[in-house]
Amino acid sequence: xxxxxxxxxxxxxxxxxxxxxxxxxxxxxxxxxxxxxxxxxxxxxxxxxxxxxxxxxxxxxxxxxxxxxxxxxxxxxxxxxxxxxxxxxxxxxxxxxxxxxxxxxxxxxxxxxxxxxxxxxxxxxxxxxxxxxxxxxxxxxxxxxxxxxxxxxxxxxxxxxxxxxxxxxxxxxxxxxxxxxxxxxxxxxxxxxxxxxxxxxxxxxxxxxxxxxxxxxxxxxxxxxxxxxxxxxxxxxxxxxxxxxxxxxxxxxxxxxxxxxxxxxxxxxxxxxxxxxxxxxxxxxxxxxxxxxxxxxxxxxxxxxxxxxxxxxxxxxxxxxxxxxxxxxxxxxxxxxxxxxxxxxxxxxxxxxxxxxxxxxxxxx
Length: 365
Description:
CATH class of the largest domain: Alpha Beta
Shape: globular
CATH topology of the largest domain: Rossmann fold
CATH superfamily of the largest domain: Vaccinia Virus protein VP39
Strand content: 15-25%
Oligomer: single chain
Order of helices and strands: HHEEHHHEHEEHEHEHEHEEH
Helix content: 25-40%
Distance between the termini: 13 Å
Number of domains: 2
Radius of gyration: 21 Å
């Protein structure tokens, strides 16, 4: 399939819903959710949740929404493909459209099954947010006299952070990601297909790597240690969309596996991202423990909850961001917003919208 400019469009294939689901889709107007439909069209679990569940707190669950073309989307997850309805066409959005909402370039072909590609995009960091973060890193590195920043990417997934890092440059200073690793084969295949020879993408479980130093030297072919380590340890254990088991879920402990690499390799800089909900786990104790550990390892840490829409992504995804700088070098600050949903004294351009993101994609029957 090709776009309006004749370029090939990957992963732009519609799903075929059941007859009842199609009725719901057809009935939804722009911005409407499941609760706006006639009750006879509600899913039975939704009806139970709204009408009968005595443990329910707060408003109705989202379940389904027709995207507003004049607004950024809500958070893209691995499950938006039975939730986000196209603004004008009576269907769920495609993997390519979700990738547009995440800011992925169109020439990234996601590898694997439909379910796998959906999850790869849902788990990724929005590329414009990643780009803004790494621009802060190269700005700082350039002022420090560095001509390039060698990097190791952990938990790379489909490469939201990696692609953002690959895009930035400040006065000739670039980030050169020599090694990226993940235990997810399809995601590794996706990133390897895009970055090609620039990065050695290694399918490996970080827990099984006994010596980070040996792993880096073997796969980077460098005798010097990386200047930068970045990554987003799997966040399902902390996510509001998951079961929030925190450290009782093995995925929650991978944050400390990430810190193990930082401690052993001690790069000049590091970037870690996670779900915004990590700040509330154990009443904030986990968040404080993570920062304390980073500081004990010799880093100044800038941290905060950033919204992707503030940095040019057509999506209101919020992420916890940690930027570490070796204390001997100073401190890299979090990037300033580049976009705004309302006029500001800085005259920032408005948010990018769903309509902006989908522009130029071919219509689907």
